[in-house]
């Protein structure tokens, strides 16, 4: 995928593993509220919860490699008055325990927080079994479940704090691949609310999670070519911010979605359904197309699938047909 | 702290043959406390179970849906737990310190609803709405609609992991509250149960009691012809549980079993309750056809007559 | 949901349980090909496979109540040269064995046929745990999996015969609730191909499976009010018939989708994604909204959610704004 | 019908300290037939395993990714199966009558790939592409890319159900072909395994052999500290399997165990292979840190030196 425009110069940006914010925030929440517990499936290390376990050994519940049990135990802990954060690789948490998520978490309205770690293609070389790119499509349709995809460490921490306060089932995707800070100073996460990171009039790029920074880069590049792209960050996939989407459709006339997920069913699907209901406009979808990914590192796969400033740029030009 | 016995109403009248009253009549029977003396408790449970079955079969007939076979096999266990053993009462359903029962074999919801009605947790007149549009009495229990329901079940193999979670919560709280979970024997074919058993053993959950309704029948066939569980007690023991076998229709024996929990060993307890699907009705008992068959009016009348003398 | 127009008179139509066609076709296939086997999870009766079991006792493999095992065993049978039809209630097959469907069936490209019995709200009164209304959204996004939703017994039989011939993983939703024959005499199922059951110019109703007859009824009613509705039956959800959808959008300018499933992510989602990509038009979605259903019978729930001629009629008028 | 022994190449040269060759050198070693005599077979397997480990550690080092600890614990089992026991050879990978091995602990793909290379199933030069873009050597095995791979694994708890399916297929065909499945011990915490064990027992799958790599370590901790499996043999026996315990690094003992399958009892066989994660490398052995740690060039050199004398 080659860029159609020259790249704008990029500022040097430190990259963060959102699991660090995750781990620190859980420790903070646990220190403040004795009801906070964590449930893992032999995933203490991959969730960076070693320090949590040192500080709260009884409150780190490791059920072993048993995802159905893990979510069920989480539901039971919620019944027993705890606030469980179930922390497991997103691929296994969602694919292996989907009925428990549907029934024990959502349908039962239990106060359980499901934390999908290292989602998307964070485990690039490990292959399709370890890619969690279906999770947004699978979870978004489950009633009564809030689905959050933070874009940077600050948003991760805020989303977790909100989840701890909120009574009810929540899924949070906690990213492992390095991301820069994308939200402005003083940012406050509001569930269900899109964030306008850049104003624009020709097209709107709606991105979620790890790819928000790439959407911003693409907007920089497009500006050089005289294309004014609005950039919306969409941290909540469910409930989706219908107003922001409809305004984008109405005001900019075209939408490109970007996600570290399948192009079907997830953010792109949610936006498409909203758009045709309220204000039909042309759309393009950047993400993983309908295929199992080949072997490759995360960054190689991002480029391979065009989940990059260049790929977004191309999708914008395609939807604008110029 | 067992709640004081509620007034015992034993007013069920003999059924008019061929005529099916809307509910069992005579519910609720209420809970009975330990101070009543063992014989009185057993008599109360026997009568309670009889009235629950009366109510259940009429309810299933009226709804035209239900799982009467697997409901009758667990009625005595449920009656023993809700009418006496468990520390939970209608004014305590939100008490964090309540004992909990999770009906993992959620298809037997009819037995749970009629038992909860008998114990005063839900208004008996609701039984007439079983399976009706907008009813609180869904085909499988829904905790959002009934406060006394601890978990939404229906898909098999969900209850034991949840029970492990409530038991860990109690242990973290240093609370003596207990968790009971009632499973089908066919249900034990679900691997999630064995995951949960390992966790329960690892965490030393002496406060957790699982009861398996060992009626030797599942949906379409005998368990032994589908996916045999034997040697079941050996399996459960190898998974780190205390195992007790009991006649699941003998209230006195059930009382003894539940009184022995938590086990001194610190292990969780698995009760193998030997039962009969459809018990005690002659034409239902041990008959796989009665998994979700709905009794005709004549069959209800026959069953009610048999229950009179049971 | 009340009809906005008078109902057209409906012809008396015999209703069929598609499981009968299912059972008869599996017997026919098994008689013709010794590789055909069936795998069930204590679901012989609910799949109407009693007679199959009598005729081919060794080839009806009942693993007990164990859905993960069931799909894995099916994958192994395929590896061993068999053509396994895995036959289980759609709710449990899809929710409980989703990772096995993703990995053992689709990613492994095994020659396995997954038959989701009694889907949608066939188990109305049994509640949300037994409703399989997420299955289309969940399975549609899995690469390499063909997803078929037959509308009547003839299409059921044809889809199964095609699945047996086709090498690769296929999911077929086999309906239990009574449906009339909707396809014309001489009909031939073609995978990936929509069927135009009625021509029309003002709007297109795209329906799948059990609700196709309701779409036809709605078109009858709308005709009385002078609204010309095209009716497309969409037996294959994946791959979706892009050409038919784009033609409908272009030629009729508005689309209403109808499914016995959630309004998000399934047929409606697939059509919305196609439309915004190729020819944006307004859409409405008939199905189960974002909620767990209350207690009620199948037919009561259909009416409750407006999955009826009257509901479709209302959705059409809404999208046409008249 | 064991295939004739392929020419044995034992040309591995001692490594230059600090210098890591691209692959192990000397692969493939080929299969050895029964007619070679037991001592020759054992010598061949020992040398094969040594070369496989050489190759594997260099491959993991070069890729900067892999699960070397859990690969070294199963190398001897894999070598025994692929270099001698199993009736499958490179020109037979599509033969319906081949024996099958399913690597359920798919994270140990590196051991499988190097073993397949040693046995001639994949070109040794492919090993240099491990984990690289578009490689056939993915982090977990993919049967669409490698004909000798029977199942795409990686998520734990998938292999045993699949193996049950291949074994049922063989039984339906009246074929003597056998299925082997290799699992991790931590993996046995997945309930799907226990479901499959019940099915295997019910179907009397004597043609099925499961091997558990009992290295007593899982990803983040010791098994006993996570979710203990003991008494493991009792569990497996209660699930209807023959149980054999063996030193999983002793090729002769492994040969004896596999020769005894199918068991006369008609039951499936579970082999508890007692192993060490990271065996035989002094600084890796029995050390949980080596689950997916990648060895430095110095560590590779040290390990290769230790392998010379192993
Ligand atoms: C996950 C799942 N698979 C299948 C079913 C369908 N089902 C309902 S009851 C039943 C049989 C249960 O047998 P058992 O546990 O012995 O209970 P009993 O019939 O004796 O009450 C089955 C298979 C289900 N409810 N959940
Ligand atoms: C379903 C699932 N959950 C979690 C993981 C992550 N994981 C990969 S390897 C591993 C530990 C496996 O332990 P064991 O089976 O003992 O294998 P060993 O580490 O000894 O090779 C875990 C938890 C996984 N691959 N699949
Ligand atoms: Mg039973
Ligand atoms: Mg291990």
UniProtKB/TrEMBL annotation, chains A, C:
The keyword Transit peptide appears for this protein: no
Keyword Ribonucleoprotein: no
GO molecular function, one term: magnesium ion binding
Keywords, in A-Z order: Thiamine pyrophosphate
Alphabetized InterPro entries for the sequence: PDH/Transketolase, THDP-binding, Transketo_C/PFOR_II, Transketolase-like_Pyr-bd, Transketolase_C
The protein's required cofactors: thiamine diphosphate
CDD domains for the chain: TPP_PYR_DXS_TK_like
Top-level lineage group: Bacteria
Residue ranges of every copy of the Transketolase-like pyrimidine-binding domain listed in the record: 16-181
Similarity remark: Belongs to the transketolase family.
Name this polypeptide is given: Transketolase family protein
TrEMBL record, chains B, D:
GO molecular function, one term: magnesium ion binding
Keywords: Thiamine pyrophosphate
UniProt record similarity statement: Belongs to the transketolase family.
Cofactor: thiamine diphosphate
Name assigned to this protein: Transketolase
Keyword set includes Signal: no
Domain Transketolase N-terminal, residue spans: 51-298
